[in-house]
Amino acid sequence: MTTTYDLNALADKHVAAARTSPHGRSAHLLLREETLRQSVIALTAGEVLEEHNAPPAATLQILRGEIVLTAVSGDVTLTEGRLHALPQERHGLRAVTDAAVLLTAVND
Fold this sequence. Notes:
Order of helices and strands: HEEEEEEEEE
């Protein structure tokens, strides 16, 4: 059996939760199938997800708002509706506005 998710509803739910969180963020692991992981992550405007290592393969889909992906190779501003392949280098996120993303990652 498969599971279907309403990404719009999840984005709204997690942005609302981030707004009431003392840390300005909310996250939920949606899917964990062998090496595949999918998570919704929400950040309030100005919040940062500190620099971290990249998984072997990953994409970031912007569900709400605007974020800046920071990396050694350069910063990229991403807006709602965009899908971006994450660089194979350390990177971080900064929310320009309240934002929600869908992170899809394949781990070893």
